[in-house]
Amino acid sequence: MASQGAFLFPTFLFFFLAGCRTPAAGVGNSTEFIREACGGTLYPQLCFSSLVGYAAVVQRSDVRLSQVASNVTLARVRSVSANVSATLAGAGAAAGPRLRAALRDCSEMLSDAAERAGQAAEALRAVESATGPALAWQVSNAMTWMSAALTDEDTCADWLAAPTAAGGGDSKAGEVYRRVREVEKHTSIALALIHKLGF
Length: 199
Description:
Layout: H1 4-7, H2 11-19, H3 30-38, H4 44-51, H5 55-58, H6 62-90, H7 97-127, H8 132-165, H9 171-198
Helix pairs in contact: 2-8, 3-4, 6-7, 6-9, 7-8, 8-9
């Protein structure tokens, strides 16, 4: 990872980030707060439906919302990773070497994605107790890790797309591809909410 200095934000940003710990002004309740925050993501409806159940935890905190979104993403990435591993284990000779190779590579990438998402969640847990440059440093770390997870997922999906589209796979492979694309949406949501902490 790049040096700490490369990730430090301008001084004025420290005060903005500190303000994220307090309830946002002008938001009627936590549910509407989540709806409003999700409106800034690429998938506002999915964002809201997956996070509104945690309204009591989030209250009106941008930091808590990003923490919840990251934890949801981590759980989903782990689930898809396990699904890909199971599909690979059950893939017979009929699946073809191209598809088996794609599943094997995808399994490795999703394992990495889960690790990166976990690192992002860990960095966000440190945000609530951090101040000054350390606060911006942790937010930057979370953005870096979650972005890396998204890249891993996208690479996995690209590897799966070729053999599946070419007819080399079966319905299970197609389902794996769809699940990977779906988890990418959740990772994108988490990244957007983390990004909101810094900009």
